[in-house]
């Protein structure tokens, strides 16, 4: 390797260290309270101004806004909050993805069709050995069960 090859190798090495890592395309979904077409236009114009946003889709019926592009969810959420509307990350998932879709925290009357709130698995009820002993205590199969009935 000659001097030119060494210089080229070193220049490539130094320039690659300064390159920024390219962001991945992300889709950010938000639930924003919108009452009319004017609200939807205002939200769409604000979110279109977010750096890296490629497309903004507004669904007025579901109160859902989807931003696609090289964006960060926190920046999109902050921009949406600047509209003075009630904003939260899209809380709904298809009910087939939730283990117990009818648990109190997951079921929501305002959810779109076939959707429930995303809840952590800690929201489900788990049976302990103490609960199990109460179940057997009042069971019909237990001859020593409570005979008050």
From TrEMBL:
This is Heavy metal-associated domain containing protein. Residues 25-88 form the HMA domain. The keyword Calcium does not apply. InterPro entries: HMA_dom (IPR006121), HMA_dom_sf (IPR036163). The keyword Metal-binding applies. It comes from the Eukaryota. Keywords: Metal-binding. Signal peptide: none annotated. It comes from Parasponia andersonii. Pfam families: HMA (PF00403). Coiled coil: none annotated. One of its GO terms (molecular function) is metal ion binding.
